[in-house]
Fold Peroxidase.
Amino acid sequence: MRGRQATPTAAGAGRWRGATAWWWLAAVVLGHLLTCARAGLLETNPGLAYNFYAKTCPNAESIVRSVTRQMVAGNAALPARLLRLHFHDCFVNGCDASILLDVANSEKTAGPNLSVGGYEVIDAIKTQLEQTCPGVVSCADIVALAARDAVSVQFPSSLWQVETGRRDGSVSLASNTGALPSPSAGFAGLLQSFSNRGLNLTDLVALSGAHTIGVASCSSVTSRLYNGNATALDPLLDSAYAQTLMSTCPNPSTSKAGTTVNLDGTTPAKFDSTYYTNVQRKQGTLASDAALMSNAQAAQMVADLANPIKFYAAFSMSMKKMGRIDVLTGTKGQIRKQCRQVGS
Ligand code: HEM
Ligand SMILES: *[C@@H]1O[C@H](CO)[C@@H](O)[C@H](O)[C@H]1NC(C)=O
Ligand SMILES: *[C@@H]1O[C@H](CO)[C@@H](O)[C@H](O)[C@H]1NC(C)=O
Ligand SMILES: *[C@@H]1O[C@H](CO)[C@@H](O)[C@H](O)[C@H]1NC(C)=O
């Protein structure tokens, strides 16, 4: 941290006398400290650490990994579900496992919950951890670690690093889910909801790459396909790809509930950078994917991240930022014994 030169020269020192000089010096020093503090807020860790449980529960991370791997081996839909679970947890009231709580009017009961899943994986991990180190590992950390481990089964090692030390919150309100970006949002709306959470354009483009795996319900895409009648295709949607989507989701009213389309129509199960190639070809599945191309700076980033090395690096960096949103650390919050219930 480098401040402006604050020391008066020897020649001028004589004039720096009395109260004025002291106030001036105090102001400069204070200003400098404030600048450092502000930069510190942006850069320093909010109380998280890698391997936070090294001493208190040395096997915590390997338990999370082995239970996650076991369950993913039996259900290929889980990596996408767990990744989305972590995103929804962090965006709504911070990464505090509030999304897991079963209480009246909880986050789970809100509209965007429909395809959120993976809760059973978190429960299974928590059960194991409570047997090994009771009351030590937070549900919020389990969510963050399980998302990473589930996606990483496709790779020789973890695709990104996860800081731990989060504690669990006790408030879960459906009314807070308005913090989630809407699938029909335009570019400005998407950027606004990310910046409301302290994330920027780089994070928006990198984290949208999560849509390289997983599925969307027909109801999340039909407005792009029909919009009242069959000739009202979203102009940002490639017409051949639209036909593919229409064949699965024939009509807003006749699509069977629960029918889904792949978010990455090219390599739906691979956590790769083809999402960005798709988006460049107007083959992003959601309107929010297509919206990235409507801003020149975002479109340039989409082009850059089509390179897998750049995508993995950018995704790791932004996941770390996402994992820090409004975390409870130190003596704040609690460690739940059951992830679905406060104080238990
Ligand atoms: C940029 C704003 C975003 C919007 C508007 C958005 C919206 C959506 C929507 C509408 C779905 C499909 C839900 C359904 O129809 O059932 C979905 C699925 C998904 N989203 Fe996002 N999302 C965004 C960002 C993210 C981020 C940041 C992540 C994770 C880091 C993420 C991960 C996922 C995953 C993995 C799925 C598939 C879930 C599954 O297959 O079960 N999304 N998203
Ligand atoms: C999801 O929200 C809807 C209301 O939008 C509700 O009917 C449904 O029961 C919720 N699902 C879960 C699993 O809570
Ligand atoms: C977003 O923030 C990261 C640091 O967290 C920074 O490296 C990047 O340049 C920022 N992106 C934009 C577009 O400002
Ligand atoms: C279909 O929708 C488009 C765009 O909304 C509109 O221009 C057109 O007139 C509509 N056609 C019919 C037959 O309603």
Residues 227-229, 231-232 surround 2-acetamido-2-deoxy-beta-D-glucopyranose (ligand 4) (CB under 6 Å). Confidence is low (pLDDT under 50) at residues 1-17, 34-42.
